[in-house]
Design a protein that fits this description.
- The structure holds 2 protein chains of 2 kinds.
- By secondary structure, chain A is α/β, with parallel strands linked by helices.
- Chain A has helices at 20-25, 45-57, 77-90, 119-135, 158-168, 177-186, 191-197, 228-240, 257-273; strands at 10-14, 32-36, 59-63, 95-98, 101-104, 107-113, 140-143, 172-176, 203-208, 210-214, 217-224, 245-248.
- In chain A, the strands form 3 sheets. An 8-stranded parallel β-sheet of chain A has the order 3-2-1-12-9-8-7-4. Chain A has a two-stranded antiparallel sheet with strand order 5-6. Chain A has a two-stranded antiparallel ribbon with strand order 10-11.
- The mean pLDDT of chain A is 96.
- A 3-stranded antiparallel β-sheet of chain B has the order 1-2-3.
- The longest helix of chain B is centred in the middle third of the chain and has 31 residues, at 159-189.
- Chain B is built from 14 helices and 3 strands.
- Chain B is mainly alpha-helical.
- Classes of the chains: A alpha/beta, B mainly alpha.
- At the A-B interface, helix 1, helix 2 and helix 9 of A face helix 11 of B.
């Protein structure tokens, strides 16, 4: 897959229902929307209407939560079919999922759970991606998640793990700069070194938002404005990677919409600075 | 000519003929109703995009005509602190009157300025708002423009569709009447005068035909657009009164210069204010509706400027002080 052929989407917002009116009243300040795919799978008529309305006004990128690419038991076929139908309806240039597992033994964990950084986990994900591609032909980009602890018997570091998955499966990378920064603090590594090891030419999209601190740990709660440290990571990534789109991913503690627009404008300026978009 | 009064239909036993007649009437009305749906060619047109700066008054007009615009303007004047709502407990009347301390006039849009300067020299009851010389008269030219714009965008039922629908209804009516008249003529020719049921049935059929097959004010495209507006803006919050006024600020830039509370009223009607600090609003207009009932036409009073359904000859209908409104679920 030639990821450089994907369209430049600019700066957008992770769509959440409380923003609905605001996004329509600020269409010129939001280049595209990322929707949580699971909110529109097997859903109500109201959500279907909402999706149709959003689709007619914005480019939509579906962001999956529950595909569980890291499940050793394989992909939930029913979920995959529904996701495929949704993607067919939306016709996005690409879709995204997480490098994690959310289901085990047929039970939903309800959380993005990290995988052990092992060859076996890479193989599991590769097998599952192959299954996904039998139903969905749209390019897939994968997102790095946060983790609080590391598995014992880890065979490689996180950056190598992510790189292997992305390169071996010809996927794009959705680099969550907030997750990257949080992991670097919690796991005590240098995020610049992490970036060195990543196939940065595969970065298609970034996520940014602020979390909060709990004792010594940073928590990826998507609940605060993007702090300066994460803007610094964003600048470095924009400088080095051919980023085509950026998404503010706010989920909690919603501020006045103006504040979100200011963050979008900051990201837009950073992208312009490195000629990622006009 | 004997065959006219000597044939199986003319000689049919009365109650049996009434049954056949009823079946014919039901068939014609149902056929006409089904045809009506296919007449509305705006269903094939794409629904317009939601504008970034929606005009709450234009939306109010789309939803329910000039009375809805009038309610929205009065609400906005109260919301911006130019009018206050008062109650006289002795005469049990509610009034809208000029506030003692007025905010800066630049806070008002042209339609609000016009209403404020030309109507509220003295206090007005909710009923007076809808009478001649009230708000509905002051907003006539604005409503005329909305009507033209919405007609051009095919959001209101195009007059040519109404013409075809009326022609079809007339054909159905002629068939029903001819059939009835034929039996009436045959019965009288046979010296039978117990035709009261036949006459009643024909009259009822005419009423049902013209009432049940009346075209809605909004075209399919208009209804789809209104539904989309209601979906898009259902998550706006009702802001407390006068916040903008205290600071003499225009509405938040986040809303592209649109006052979100006024937009909610435009999109959903004053009933959306129930349970907020403007709770009295829907109730006041509801009471106005009760007092006015019988005087003027109905809910929402969707007069059409330059098209068919305007109640008074000169265009903008007066009155119609229904607090309820209709269209997109306003009311209260």
């Amino acid at each position: 897959m030639k990821f450089d052929l994907l369209p430049k989407l600019g700066v957008g917002l992770g769509f959440r229902e409380p923003f609905r009116a605001d996004v329509f009243l600020n269409q010129d300040k939001i280049d595209f929307l990322e929707i949580t795919a699971d909110h529109y799978i097997d859903t109500t008529k109201e959500k279907e209407r909402e999706l149709d309305l959003l689709k007619r006004h914005f480019t939509l990128i579906p962001h999956g939560i529950n595909l569980s690419l890291g499940s050793a038991e394989g992909i939930d076929e029913l979920y995959l079919e529904r996701l495929a139908r949704l993607i067919e309806t939306i016709e996005p240039p690409y879709f995204s999922e997480h490098i994690c597992f959310t289901k085990a033994g047929g039970i939903s964990i309800g959380h993005l759970s990290p995988l052990p950084f092992t060859r076996e986990a890479v193989d599991v994900i590769s097998r599952n991606i192959e299954t996904v591609r039998t139903k969905i032909s749209v390019p897939l980009i994968l997102e790095n998640i946060t983790y609080m602890m590391r598995f014992p018997d880890t065979e490689m570091n996180e950056a190598d793990f992510v790189s292997k998955i992305v390169l071996e499966n010809d996927c794009g990378l959705l680099l969550d700069v907030t997750n990257l920064y949080i992991n670097s603090v919690n796991q005590k590594y240098d995020w610049r070194e992490y970036l060195e090891k990543l196939p940065l030419e595969r970065v298609v999209q970034i996520h940014f938002v602020g979390g909060h601190k709990h004792k010594e740990l940073l928590i990826d709660s998507h609940s605060h404005k993007t702090p300066d440290e994460i803007w610094e990571v964003t600048k470095e990534v924009m400088k080095r990677a051919p980023v085509k789109s950026a998404i503010l991913e706010r989920d909690e503690n919603f501020p006045p919409f103006d504040e979100l627009l200011k963050e979008l404008e900051t990201a837009r300026e950073i992208g312009r600075m490195f000629k990622r978009w006009d | 000519m004997d065959w006219l009064i000597e044939n199986p239909l003319a000689n049919m036993y009365g109650p049996l003929f009434l049954m056949v007649y009823a079946v014919l009437i039901i068939f014609l009305i149902a056929f006409h109703k089904i045809r009506l749906k296919s007449l509305d060619w705006t269903a094939k047109m794409p629904t317009p995009h939601i504008p970034q700066n929606p005009d709450p008054y234009e939306i109010a007009y789309l939803r329910g005509g000039e009375n809805e615009v009038a309610r929205s303007v009065v609400f906005s004047l109260v919301h911006k602190g130019f009018l206050i709502h008062t109650k006289d407990f002795i005469v049990k009347q509610e009034f809208f009157q000029k506030a003692e301390t007025l905010p800066e006039i630049r806070l008002l849009s042209p339609i609000e300025k016009k209403v404020f300067s030309s109507v509220f020299h003295s206090s007005k009851t909710a009923e007076e708002i809808f009478k001649d010389g009230g708000v509905t008269s002051a907003i006539y030219t604005y409503c005329y423009d909305y009507e033209q714009k919405l007609q051009n965008e095919k959001l209101l039922m195009p007059p040519e569709i109404e013409g075809v629908a009326q022609r079809n209804a007339s054909i159905a009516a002629v068939v029903i009447l001819l059939f009835g008249c034929f039996k009436l003529f045959a019965a009288i020719a046979h010296g039978r005068f117990n035709v009261i049921f036949l006459i009643i049935m024909a009259i009822v059929a005419m009423i049902v035909l013209f009432v049940s097959t009346k075209l809605p004010r909004l075209s399919h495209r208009g209804r789809a657009y209104l539904e989309e507006l209601q979906t898009a803006f259902s998550k706006l919050n009702i802001k407390p009164p006068s916040k903008a006024v205290r600071t003499n600020e225009l509405p938040q830039p986040a809303y592209a210069g649109v006052d979100p509370t006024l937009l909610m009223v435009g999109v959903f009607g004053v009933s959306i204010l129930s349970g907020t600090s403007y709770d009295y609003f829907p109730q006041t207009f509801q009471r106005a509706s009760t007092h006015e009932s019988g005087a003027v036409s109905g809910c929402g009073s969707s007069s059409s400027y330059g098209s068919s359904s305007c109640s008074s000859g000169g265009g903008c209908s007066s009155g119609g002080g229904c607090g309820g409104g209709c269209g997109g679920g306003c009311g209260g």
